[in-house]
Amino acid sequence: MGREMEVLVIGGGSTGCGIARDLSMRGVDVTLVERGNLTHGTTGRMHGLLHSGGRYAVSDQESAAECIAENRVLREIASHTVEMTGGLFVQKPGDPDEYFEEKLAGCRECGIPAEVLSGAEAREIEPYLARDVERAIRVPDGAIDPFRLCVANAADAEKHGARIETHAEVTDVLVEDGQVKGVEVRHASGPGKRTHRDPGTTERIEADHVVNATGAWAGQLGAMAGVEVEVRPSKGVMTVMNCRQVDTVVNRCRPKGDADIVVPHETACILGTTDEEVEDPDDYPEEQWEVDMMIDTLSELVPILSEARTLRSFWGVRPLYEPPDTGTTDPTDITRQFFLLDHADRDDLAGMTTIVGGKFTTYRLMAEQITDHVCGKLGVDAPCRTADEPLPGSNDFSVLRDYMEEFGLRSPIGRRSTERLGSKADRVLKTDDPNPVVCTCEAVTRAELEDAIDDAGTDLNATRIRTRASMGNCQGGFCAHRMASLLHPDHDEATTRAALDDLYAERWKGQRHALWGEQLSQAMLNHALHATTMNRDHDPAAREETIEYDRFDAGPSTSAADAATDGEGVNRGD
Amino acid sequence: MAIEDDVCVIGGGLAGMTSALRAAREGARVRLVSHKKSTLRHASGLVDVLGYTPDGELVAEPFGALAALPAGHPYERVGVDAVRDGLGLFDEVVGDAYYGDHTDANALVPTHGGTVKPTARYPESAAAGLASDPRETLLVGFETLTAFDAPLAADHLDAAGVPAATRGVTVPFPGAFRADSRVTRFAHALDRDEAIETNAGTTGARRALATAVDPHLDGAERVGFPAVLGDDESSDVRAALETRLGVDVFEVPMGPPSLPGLRLERLFTAALDDAGVRRTTGNPVVDFEADGERIQAVYVDRNGQRAPFHADEFVLATGGLVGKGIDSDRDGVIEPIFDCHVPHPDDRYEWFVDEAFGDHPFARFGVDVDAELRPLDADGGIEYANLRAAGGVLGGADFAAEKSGSGISLATGYAAGRAAGEAV
């Protein structure tokens, strides 16, 4: 059964969720479909930098100016997802002076507050900076949690009436008489919150307009509609360290290069990145040398990184786009601007718009412009309010109380829960039930997890990104099973077990790129706890053959009784 | 005055303690040097010998399956007799505190994850819970103890086809404990039978716990709790609960901090003291001195001061990757004290496989040894004539997948300790 909708947004990343929020706030009926969980694509695989614009102040000033403007907006509307760490562009011996001066001038031209520090002053801010750092430019870079930001956008869109459908993969774009009429999606397990093991269903969703916000996958989606979108997916690696070696974003001040940024993020630091074009955004090599290069090159800026513990590495794909015939060969030369492709104008295919390119920091601005465009098509005349209205969780964040006493939580746990939850803390943490810590690495309590499960269903990876549970040193070894048990008894044992297996596999995947030293030791401990103590690797409930229990010891008293019945003495030679 | 012993054992886990005990039986003057708390606190307290073959077949009778293990496996190196001898020593040390010596068959013990696990010896506290025992079972979890969800574990055991009808219930642990109290806090409350305020007035923690569980019994013939039933007084705690509930009570082994693991460690520590083994704990061995092919001494770091420990024979029982007896960096895998050769692929991306529970090469990392348990260098020669290795530091076995960790520690600890003791 089709359902009459006005706009369908494809893609549950920052851009898609931002568009859904904007459209719904303007009174448009919206459905968003995403093939995985929210942030499944590029948004969930970035280093969490809230750009000041300094990075683009030389090469791409238009982007730089957009960044600083949106940086200021996000600090206001999404305060509970932002940490204003500040950032440094540091110059090492051999990094060109001219570029340093160009960067400084560029920042000022773009309205980015920029201040020159001596090497000594920079080391006063970041004691672990290399001794030979000569000077630095301080800019208002920050760290932002892309998961919470994206989820907050989706939640607010839902509050304004949008339908957000995750684990719903578009299998076809419906084209009739030269016009896009909607899409067909396959639900991983039926509509609504994800439930494992249910048979999949398909659904036809009709719309007056379809927005292709699938980023690096825009070309594939375009192909389903019969149009060509020349997106150029470019992969980048990020390596997660187990603690904050720096509390400020540290960038290398040189024209361009791989491995030139360290972003502090909650309890961790993220090293990034590379920029390498790939054919298929779903299938590209994840290679050892990329991880080694992150550590070796960034150790030149922050030497202790060479001895530090890494937790995992992950790769993301950028949705780079360049208009046809530009002929750029190096992906680092491709603009970070975004492009709105009106397929009616471009391809004679009405009813669909594609958005490609752009940056996470400017997701809201992109959403605003696309929404303006779509509203123009639909004849909706309503102003954009997304720059002014705080996202859920960021209302009155300044008046939060100390939750330590209120909820009987120890200080660091109360503080961290409150920081994550923002103004939602009151509602989430006020529970009459005991609220023990489930993930000790990241200080996540049961109430916070249960709130996330209410939202995410049985997809524990979706719960993970909402809470950070299982993202610390142990990478789920000590807590994945505790998280899974919260699904029971609302969900049956088999579903719970499948959810645990999914989460554990996902946590394992990224750790593979960090398996030496402390993290290899941790991996062996996790292996021992899950395989030895819990015997999850030979789980009899998951194996085909049934166990013949009577071949095993049933205890000394029972076996003595058996022996007596059988008339056979127990002769052990003693 | 110089520290001079016949045998110096490095490492305080099950393998090291077994080596030291066995060497002392030869009349040797034995010293055991250990650094951090042993990984027994991580372990379940179950003593596995072999639960699965390398092909993943469930093993009902481990001794029959040992002969089929491949060359290089620690059991193949020491032989089946050493496994029996090691278990025999274990049985003597633990006495009535462990069961399983009445049969050669493995027992299947319920795990806190709701599966069953094959093991050769199990603590007395776990004995009433065996999965092959068909008596109706109630599992009890505590609201704030997130590592054990009793209703889920019961459903999981049911899915595993256990013969016993099994139910689970979650109750508050009686008394006003913090929501994030650790298992040791519950154990100590039961050890001391602390006074607890309940609706019915002040009562002891043991009685209060039984009172909380009693309404849920409903015909169950045995009751399983997470392994928090006392630390020093665990037998008394269990006996008190059994008396009040009128049914058998057992513990389900848990992860760290594992009380059954800690209780086992105490039994062995007492045996070491009885055997006159000198124990030096809390400082790492950081270096050694060798004269040609023999080790003369190891150096212990005490706040920057290096203290030599001389001996005729040395046993390396420092554990594997978890215990840091095997260490690694991006370039390779090492044994950090003597730099014994650790076979491993050069490319660290060949240290693992892609599936979380796949056949990981890293799980087998450790030193290779000859039949006398002497570590071998890259060319197959003996590293040092008077150095033997035992337990997790040995390579060639994925103890987690095989469920063979304790058995390997006991068998190789026994063999290394005997050989070292005989050599002096």
Structural topology:
The complex is a heterodimer of chains A (574) and B (424).
Chain A: E1 3-10, H1 14-25, E2 30-33, E3 49-50, H2 61-77, E4 82-83, E5 87-91, H3 97-109, E6 115-118, H4 119-125, E7 135-139, E8 142-144, H5 146-159, E9 163-165, E10 168-176, E11 179-187, E12 201-212, H6 218-225, E13 231-241, E14 249-252, E15 261-265, E16 268-272, E17 276-277, H7 288-298, E18 310-321, E19 338-342, H8 343-347, E20 352-357, H9 363-378, H10 403-406, H11 411-421, H12 425-429, E21 437-439, E22 444-445, H13 446-456, H14 460-467, H15 480-485, H16 493-511, H17 517-533, H18 556-566
Parallel strand pairs in A: 1-2, 1-12, 2-9, 5-14, 12-20
Antiparallel strand pairs in A: 3-8, 4-8, 5-7, 6-7, 10-11, 11-12, 13-16, 13-17, 13-18, 14-15, 15-16, 19-20, 21-22
Helix pairs in contact in A: 1-5, 1-9, 13-14
Chain B: E1 3-10, H1 14-25, E2 30-34, H2 62-66, H3 74-78, H4 80-94, E3 98-99, E4 107-110, E5 116-119, E6 122-123, E7 137-142, H5 150-159, E8 166-171, H6 183-191, E9 195-198, E10 201-204, H7 205-213, E11 222-226, H8 234-245, E12 248-252, H9 259-274, E13 278-281, E14 285-291, E15 294-302, E16 305-316, E17 327-329, E18 332-334, E19 387-389, H10 399-402, H11 405-423
Parallel strand pairs in B: 1-2, 1-16, 2-13, 7-8, 7-11, 11-12, 16-19
Antiparallel strand pairs in B: 3-6, 4-5, 9-10, 14-15, 15-16, 17-18
What does this structure look like?
The complex is a heterodimer of chains A (574) and B (424). Chain A has 574 residues and is of the alpha+beta class. Chain A is 34% helix and 21% strand. In chain A, helix 1 (14-25) packs parallel to helix 5 and helix 1 (14-25) packs across helix 9 (363-378). Chain A is globular. The termini of chain A are far apart. Chain B has 424 residues and is α/β, with parallel strands linked by helices. Chain B has two domains: 3-98 and 261-423, 3-Layer(bba) Sandwich (FAD/NAD(P)-binding domain); 112-252, 3-Layer(aba) Sandwich (Rossmann fold), CATH 3.40.50. Helix content of chain B is 27%, strand content 23%. Chain B has eleven helices and 19 strands. In chain B, strands 1, 2, 13, 14, 15, 16 and 19 form a seven-stranded mixed β-sheet that branches. In chain B, strands 8-7-11-12 form a four-stranded parallel β-sheet. In chain B, helix 1 (14-25) runs parallel beside helix 9 (259-274) and helix 7 (205-213) crosses helix 8. Classes of the chains: A alpha+beta (574), B alpha/beta (424). Chains A and B meet through helix 7, helix 15, helix 16, helix 17 and helix 18 of A and strand 5, helix 5, strand 17 and helix 10 of B.
